[in-house]
From TrEMBL:
<dbReference type="InterPro" id="IPR027417">
    <property type="entry name" value="P-loop_NTPase"/>
</dbReference>
<feature type="domain" description="RecF/RecN/SMC N-terminal">
    <location>
        <begin position="28"/>
        <end position="111"/>
    </location>
</feature>
<dbReference type="Pfam" id="PF02463">
    <property type="entry name" value="SMC_N"/>
</dbReference>
<protein>
    <submittedName>
        <fullName>Chromosome partition protein smc</fullName>
    </submittedName>
</protein>
<dbReference type="InterPro" id="IPR003395">
    <property type="entry name" value="RecF/RecN/SMC_N"/>
</dbReference>
<feature type="region of interest" description="Disordered">
    <location>
        <begin position="1"/>
        <end position="22"/>
    </location>
</feature>
Amino acid sequence: MEDEEDPFEGGLTMKAQPADKPVQRLDAMSGGEKSLTALAFIFAIQRHNPAPFYALDEVDAFLDAVNAERVGELVDELAADAQFVVVSHRSAMLERSERAIGVTMQGDNVSAVTGIDLTGGEEAPADD
C-alpha cells in the first residue's frame, strides 16, 4: 500500500506471479493475466471477509477457454454463500447460471430483453 496510515488516500501496487512466469508488476501483464490477478485478489478478499452480493462485468473477456472455465467453476462454488450477477458472453459462465437475461437490438433500434430460468428451462418475465 502506498499510504499504510490512510489506505484510501493512496494506491495499491501489486506484483504477481502467474503460473510459469516471473514475478512482475500488474501493468506489465497481458489482459488475461491482469484479469486472473484481479480475480484472485477479489476472491481472496471474498474468502476473508465475504459480502452477500457481487457484480462482475465481463471479467472473463480476456481469459482463454481453460481459465474462463476455472473462473466459472469458482463463481459457481462461491455462489453457495453469496449472490453473483455476472455479465458474460462465455459459455463457461452461462452453463452454470440459474438465470440468464439477454438483450438484443431489434430492427427499429429498440432493445428487447428476454429472461430464461435455466433451472427449469422456462422463460422468465423481463422488463422492457
